[in-house]
Structures are given as structure tokens and as C-alpha cells.
Amino acid sequence: MSHHHHHHVDSTTGKIKTAFFLNFAFTIIEIIGGLLTNSMAILSDALHDLGDSLSLGLAWFLQKFSKKGTSESFSFGYRRFSLLAALINSIVLIVGSIFIFIEAVPRLFDPPEPHAGGMLAVAILGIVINGAAVFRLRGGDSMNQKVLTWHLLEDVLGWIAVLIASVIMMFFDVPILDPVASIGITLFILYNVVKNLVQTMKLFLEAVPSDVDLKRIIEKINDLPGVLSSHHTHLWSLDGENHAFSTHVVVAGNAGKQEICTIKEGVKNTLESIQLEHVTIEVEYEDDPCGLET
């Protein structure tokens, strides 16, 4: 079992590593291509790919880093570092998007002529390379891998937009399509970045994960046989995928060891649908008041 898990982690790390090198190499190519073809749409997609390269690079690093386990300084381990990576990535993309807007908006009023043939060539390359990265990451079990796959699929859609714009400009003199495509891609990037940034900040502030109904969990715990009440129930996330849970349950003063073990098992069964990294269940007798109560 241990060998299988190690193999799975190494396989995931290898897939992310390959996707990172594909994406980063192409980001350099498209920045050069965007400058040579005078295309803001390509530079906008280059920004998106730079963000993806950062995401992939940090995911690759953290995938290896997370295997370190716990330490004296980080008793929960290093999973939470991925939130820091997400925050850095979001800031880079927001700053880059502002730069693209500053460059693209004036071009709406006086659009320069981009090299449509060059745009077409880079767009085809973009679809192929991003498609290869998606193919490499497909079928991943981890949430990290699935999120990265969807992120790269968004890139493919961006390059399809550039492809369509370049084909139209090869036959019609409409250079304004380039800044329009650039602004459209940048708005799409910003929408997703802000959405992810809000989620990241909620995790930093230890909000209850959005896909979990804590009120319903508390009701289920209180309905368990032998549980008189519960309090100090907390659920927070370490990295958006793995969560931690703690609660105090109150039992009758004459509850025996077997009954308490059954209650604990019942609480754990209530939580089985949640990906929990850490669970703390403190049992209190009704005639022994909680020291944390005020």
C-alpha cells in the first residue's frame, strides 16, 4: 500500500513537471512571437500562459515539498504553502492584466496592423502545446491535477480565439480585432483570477469550506445516540482540498468507555464524505463543565 501511494505521488509530480516545461518553454516562444507579430492578443495569452507556468511550477515544487510531512515548526505539515503560491500567482496575473489593458485600450482607437500569418502560426502552436499539456495531465486523481487541467483547457480556448481572429484578418482589413481579442482574453483571465483570489483569501481566513454544510454536520452529531450536545465545533481547510475538524461532545455522566468509543465512531462516520487530514473529538461529561466555556 505504501509503495503504491509513493508511486502515485511520483506519477503526479512527473505529469506536472512535464506540463510545466511544455508551458514555460511555449510562454517564452509566444512572448517573442507576440512582439514580432505586433499582436496584443498573443501577448495577452502569453500572460495567461505565464500565470499557468507559475501555477504548474509552484504545484510541481509543492507536490514534492508536501512529502516532507510534519515538523516541529509546522505541525500540520506544509500543505498550506500552496495557498501562498496561489496568492503570489494571482498578484502576478492581476499586475500583468493591468499592463495588458494599458497597452491594448489605446490600440482600439488607432489599431496597428499585426502580422496575421505569424499570429496564425503561433495560435496553432499554442493549441498543440497546451493540448499536449492537457493530455499529459488528464485522468488525474488529485484536486490539484484536475484544477491545472481545466486551467490549461482555458488556454486552448484562448488560442482558438486568437486563431479565429488571425484567419479573419488574413482576408479582411480589420486590425481592431487584435486589441479586441486581447481585452476579451484579459477580462476572462481577470474574472477567474479574482474568483480564485476570493477563495484563497477565505482559506487564509480559515472560513468553512464552501462545499461543506457545517450546520448540517452539527445537527447530525447532536442526533447521535448518547450525545447530549456539542459545542466548539470548527471546520477549516489546510489547502482547499484537505480539511481539519474539531468538536466537543457532551455525554451523560455515567457513560462508559464502549459508549464513548461508539460516539466517536459515529462522529467520524458523519464526516466520512469530507477529505479530512486531521480530526479532534473531545468528550466531556455533562457534570464536568468545559474549561473553554465563557
UniProtKB/TrEMBL annotation:
Main localisation: membrane
Cross-referenced InterPro entries: Cation_efflux (IPR002524), Cation_efflux_CTD (IPR027470), Cation_efflux_CTD_sf (IPR036837), Cation_efflux_TM (IPR058533), Cation_efflux_TMD_sf (IPR027469)
Pfam families: Cation_efflux, ZT_dimer
Record membrane topology: Multi-pass membrane protein
Keyword annotations of the record: Membrane, Transmembrane, Transmembrane helix, Transport, Zinc
Span of domain Cation efflux protein transmembrane: 17-202
Gene3D superfamilies: Cation efflux protein transmembrane domain
Subcellular location: Membrane
Span of domain Cation efflux protein cytoplasmic: 209-284
Entry's transmembrane regions: 20-40, 83-102, 114-135, 147-170, 176-194
Family statement: Belongs to the cation diffusion facilitator (CDF) transporter (TC 2.A.4) family. SLC30A subfamily.
UniProt-recorded name of the protein: Cation transporter
